[in-house]
Design brief:
By secondary structure, the chain is mainly β. The protein has a domain of about 230 residues. Helix content is about 0%, strand content about 30%. The strands form 5 sheets. Strands 4, 5, 6, 7, 12, 14, 15, 17 and 19 form a 9-stranded antiparallel sheet that branches. It has a 5-stranded antiparallel sheet with strand order 8-9-18-13-16, with no helix packed on it. Strand 4 and strand 5 form a beta hairpin.
Length: about 375
């Protein structure tokens, strides 16, 4: 018997702002599950539903895809029982590869495919303890590597379609599917996608078609962006001109790219604009949640396709194979359309596809207050 679960990585109990993403990150052994209740069938012990409070056991988490799942700091939920004080997480996460400093922040990937490790994630563990907050510097998601369509057995939506200069809107519907995935809208012929069946593989694990890995994006404070802005920027230039004028004070390299699948998966490389061979043809999927306090904005800049959903409503539609583009969501201005109101918690989902050479750009600037470090769908067997 198997059941699908969504595991929250590194539950952040502190809601003081995205500054919690600027100092430390969840490592393999410190990635925390937001779920609780079931015992592990692999290496996890026999703890109870400690994330909801109560006297849970002290079992350790099971392993799935190279990421150890352990229970969150139950003290933040007011539970009774023993102490719970996970070690402070660090960046880069232990065992991750492709650790790359970028214009703002860094990224890194777990080299062990999610699909290669069996067993259930451990849900037991200690409960109670003093109140406190869990912090992380990484927003974790899933990268799925594909074969380029110009290769034998490649995916027809990657590398084969013609690149453009503007967004191809209307590839997906304006509401996220019940399974948390974009819904193909059957756009008119002549676009950059082939069929619904092929599109449905972009953000779902399909043996022989894609290989999924965990990726971490390390955000840092960005004073040049305004008060409370944090940024992850792996991008060449800006959508408003060449160079990095708005990032004159960037603490890392002045220009950068996003290639988290280098050396992983199919690793069918091609030469990029930086003169090096890189692994193109991959997608990135990120799920998290935030508290809407009023005044927040979320900006994405990059290529190729990107769809951002807030409260399961499409907020940014930059589909298609195109040069680097930028769009911003002003949550106050779009609150009615998104169905959000201040003081409540809402889902955020970001879907990106790198489908064509010879650049890969991925940038997020935001003032959103994330309440976890990413939610990764996995299957419990």
């Amino acid at each position: 018997m198997r059941a699908s679960e969504v595991v929250g990585l590194g539950l952040v109990a502190s809601l003081t702002g995205l500054s919690v993403l600027a100092g430390t990150a969840c490592s393999r052994g410190e990635v925390q599950s937001a779920t609780g209740g079931s015992t592990s069938t692999s290496s996890g012990g026999g703890g109870g539903a400690s994330s909801q409070g109560g006297a849970g056991g002290s079992g350790s988490g099971g392993t799935y895809g190279g990421v150890t799942i352990v229970p969150p700091d139950a003290g933040s939920f007011g539970g009774a029982g023993g102490s719970s004080s996970p070690p402070p997480p660090t960046w880069p996460p232990t065992g991750f590869v492709n650790v790359t400093n970028v214009t703002y922040g860094a990224y890194a990937s777990d080299p062990i495919p999610l699909s290669s490790a069996g067993g259930a994630s451990g849900q037991g563990g200690s409960s109670g303890g003093s109140s406190g907050s869990s912090q992380c510097a990484g927003l974790f998601g899933v990268v799925r590597d594909f074969k380029m369509g110009n290769l034998s057995g490649g995916h027809p939506d990657f590398q084969l379609p013609t690149t453009g200069r503007t967004a191809e809107t209307g590839i997906v519907t304006d509401t996220l599917g019940d399974d948390g995935k974009p819904v193909y809208a059957n756009p008119p012929a002549g676009g950059t996608t082939s069929t619904q069946a092929n599109f449905d593989q972009w953000y779902r694990d399909v043996d022989g078609v894609n290989i999924p890995f965990v990726v971490g994006l390390h955000f840092v404070a960005n004073p040049s962006g305004g008060n409370g802005v944090v940024t992850f920027a792996a991008s060449l230039g800006t959508s408003t001109g060449t160079g990095r004028n708005r990032d004159a004070g960037a603490p890392a390299v002045a220009t950068s790219s996003y290639f988290p699948a280098d050396g992983l998966g199919w690793n069918d490389t091609a030469r990029a604009d930086d003169g090096n061979e890189h692994n193109f043809a991959f997608t990135t999927e990120i799920h998290t949640a935030f508290i809407y306090n009023g005044g927040e904005k979320f900006t994405f800049q990059g290529d190729d396709d990107v769809w951002v959903y807030i409260n399961k409503k499409l907020a940014i539609d930059l589909g298609g194979i195109h040069q680097q583009l930028q769009a911003t969501v002003d949550l106050d201005a779009q609150a009615s359309t998104l169905g959000i109101s201040k003081g409540n918690t809402y889902d955020l989902a970001v879907f990106n596809a790198e489908r064509h050479t010879s650049q890969s750009n991925f940038r997020i600037d935001t003032t959103l207050v994330f309440i976890d470090c990413g939610q990764i769908p996995i299957t419990i067997y």
